[in-house]
């Protein structure tokens, strides 16, 4: 009943004059609402929150244009964390999706002569195709045009309104449609455009802004300064560099925020409950996606999220506005926000006008899924921008995955040195009596590796964890060079020594492959399969060295761990 009421309210709002929502869109919305109603009544309550649940989110992506490498990076990073917590035994909820309302999308659809709903369907499908292709293990893909989300946003709005934090006011100031952001005077710069005109742009993004004067609903952001500071004191924003930035934003004045737009300008959005003349501000709408995924406000919904992964350009929305909205609705705030920097291409910002936007579909073809995932996670550091160049990708993949990792696997499993295809047992006494200081150091660092990598991944320093794994593999390659198994195998009396060399190499590969599963899932699986490690022995607890061995290798193998990249950049051909 409540749903039917909501359905007719929404349809009435969107039938207002001057709306660009056509009959087709209305019908779609109606179908979505009815389908949603069915799902709603059939739904059981969600898994309730608990210490064993890890709820992680990516930002939801604007559907104004197709995905680029920056979008893939944010998602791969979140996927890596989701996979890590899974192999640590958590029940993981991992959400991603598309942000489909607002001026930016309304305008993009118009520019392409398409209805917004059709345009959103098309671009959202591209994001879903990319995430399937790149092995993203999300449990939820949310679209903000879905009925379940529309309901959640309206419920959430009503709750904040009933709590007295939304009031009718008027906004006059700058608005940047590209960022969907309201800006104060000090965040606006004046620049000369290519055609010689003076234009105002956002100081943060460089995108044009326009002056706006409208009757709007305002949110009492200023009321939450102290609560926000208390929350921030728990060091919730990672890395620390960004925590300091957020502290400063909150310490400086927090002005009330406009949270609606008049339907005269914006119809492609969710109507303000009870006021057909206003559409909810797209950022409020978008942020609530996280609650929708958690099942809010149904019984047993899961909240708060443990981690929101965001790029630095959208930190303020997540670390200031979002917690304040949640506080206003009497809901818990997220545990942590992980903020990353951006990808530059050949040292410059990616932009359509420069024609340097990296298409992730093309680069998956060039470098493979695992190759691209590895490069993005290994090369990006959270605190500063990273640089994407074709030569760098090729060199890193060939030297680290094909050489360091791939060769090590090839060397210990080849028929030449390992004709019986064994993962031999380890002879500890022999190792003690024959090992050099360097060998013992290698052994010590292998023991420490899982704990160290755990700390790195948990602290969002993925690149450091990968670096430690690669160092271990390099040490083992050096060990192999010194031990020369290709010589040992020619002498029967050296069989025990050969067994130890092969064992240590394989044990290293086993440990490293378990730790690399979140980074390069298919490649790690190929290595573990080749070593014949059972599928149920690939959790984080299994990465502890146990020196078992005494098993056979897989009877068949699916090629090398990683094939060399032979593609060359335009500059180097
Ligand atoms: N729709 C909003 C997010 C709403 S979340 C409630 C949005 N979308 S976006 O498509 O513009 O950006 C999504 C993510 O991609 C952001 O985290 C952003 O930082 C990231 N990236 C966009 N360009 C990027 C790079 N060049 N490099 C790395 N990530 C970048 O903002």
TrEMBL record:
Question: EC number(s) per UniProt?
Answer: 6.1.1.10
> Which organism's genome codes for this protein?
Paralvinella palmiformis
For this UniProt entry, the molecular function terms from Gene Ontology, in alphabetical order, are: ATP binding; methionine-tRNA ligase activity
A GO term (biological process) for this protein?
A: methionyl-tRNA aminoacylation
Which GO cellular component terms are attached?
mitochondrion
Query: What Pfam families is this protein classified in?
Result: Anticodon_3, tRNA-synt_1g
> Domain Methionyl/Leucyl tRNA synthetase, which positions?
54-412
User: Family assignment?
Assistant: Belongs to the class-I aminoacyl-tRNA synthetase family.
Q: Where is the Methionyl-tRNA synthetase anticodon-binding domain?
A: 436-536
What the entry lists under InterPro entries is as follows: Anticodon_Met, Met-tRNA_synth, Met-tRNA_synth_2, Methionyl/Leucyl_tRNA_Synth, MetRS_core, Rossmann-like_a/b/a_fold, tRNAsynth_Ia_anticodon-bd
Listed A to Z, the keywords are: Aminoacyl-tRNA synthetase, ATP-binding, Ligase, Nucleotide-binding, Protein biosynthesis
Q: What is this protein called?
A: Methionine--tRNA ligase, mitochondrial
Catalytic activity reads: tRNA(Met) + L-methionine + ATP = L-methionyl-tRNA(Met) + AMP + diphosphate
Q: Does the keyword Aminoacyl-tRNA synthetase apply?
A: yes
